[in-house]
Design a protein that fits this description.
2 strands, about 375 residues, Na+/solute_symporter_sf, transmembrane helix, Mem_transp_PIN-like, transmembrane, transport, mainly alpha
Amino acid sequence: MSRLGSCAGISWDAEAPACGKGYHSRRCRVAGSPTEKGKRRYRAMEVLGHAGFQMLVLFTIVLLGAVARKRDLMNDTFDSTLSRLVMTVALPGMILDSVLGNQNLPSSETILVMMACSTAVYVIVCPVAFLIVRFLYRGVSKSARGAHAFLIAFGNTGFIGFAVLDAVFGADAVLYGAIYNIPYNLFLYSVGLLFIMSSDDAGGRGPGAAYQLKLIAKQLVSPCLLSCFAAMALALLGVTDSGFVGQACGLLGQMTVPAAMLVIGSTLAKMPLKDMISDGWAYVTTALRLVGVPLLVFVVGGIFIKDPYILAITALLSGMPAASSGTMMCLAYGGDVQAMARGTFLTTVLSLVTLPIIALIVA
């Protein structure tokens, strides 16, 4: 008898009778004939196990970053320098490699759909975040409400997002992440900045409209965003390269994930644990960021997005922990640094639990 396939270690044969009533039905159950339900269960456990394993690997590197901070191998200066190196050299290399090293590029239509999905996510999520903190977060200062709105709306779709996409869906998914990040960055440095500047105690330190436009324009020519535009253009033109340029970008990109995880671990290690876990509103924000937003995107997106792969990537990216740039923006423009740091800490730690589950749901 010829074997046709297996599921969760259970095999079935070409000559096996069809399952039905009576004897054949009992025989199939005894032999362990796979059913669609069994296949789905096996696939679900496979996705959950893979995502959980990859998050455990990433968390191990985060712990090493925390240990390195405690052993004085990393400090604020080193973290800042390494972050700039990653954002200006390594991450652009990873983004470009997602196209140059990809022999199965998506169609132009798929790329444009991905951009439209990302734009739609933030057109919906940003107003929802603003309304939630405005009417739900009673007794919270205006500056803290701005920080919470930022935390709900914007996840770490770059540092952690690319790492998780690569771990769960493979290297090809990084290209989709790069496309997703083009509208994301436009919203981050415009609407996100408005959230942070909505402070009643900033003392006028927030920038005016002209300076804000200048800041947004500066971000549009940052190496990371330029590489996103370049990756999209190369993908639309169908350009790949497995030679010198492609291998150089791939080698540069390989340092992105470990360097990013080390910096995150070092940053978290300097935050007093008691201060990070003592605010109840931070837990509400964490639940909305890690569970509420991705489920909203997955449910609403499922109505309009016909490509399940694009839907899965969009929903998973929307469930990332809070954007690490929020703390730096608060320091620069008079936002609530403490509220932002709490939310960043909690979402980063608890995402180790929620991301594998979200990956299971969307995949």
